[in-house]
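Appendix B, record 7
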Amino acid sequence: MREVNLIERPQLSAHVRLHWDPVREKQVILMPEGMLALNATAAAIVALCDGQQSVSEIIAELSSQYHRAVDEDVLYFLNRLQSKRLLELAGDIQSIQDLHG
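Structure tokens (predicted):
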């Protein structure tokens, strides 16, 4: 599985969804196998994964919100979600092909 790059537009996979859990009082990702509780930062990242915004746009938004560089944190988290098949990536096919030669 390839790593997430800055031009792709991530979104949650079709078999999962973001949900507010009133018992835990936090956002969770619900999936057929169970759930994944998210801290506030992870929830902020996932909320921006709408399939419309690129990874670089998500990073810019969160850098502005948290007033610090978040590039590595966002990429690490998105790669973890992708490795668990919780995230789908869309992007400009030609740009992706250019990146991967």
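Remarks on this record: Residues 93-98 have pLDDT under 50 and may be disordered. Residues 71-83 form the longest helix (13 residues).
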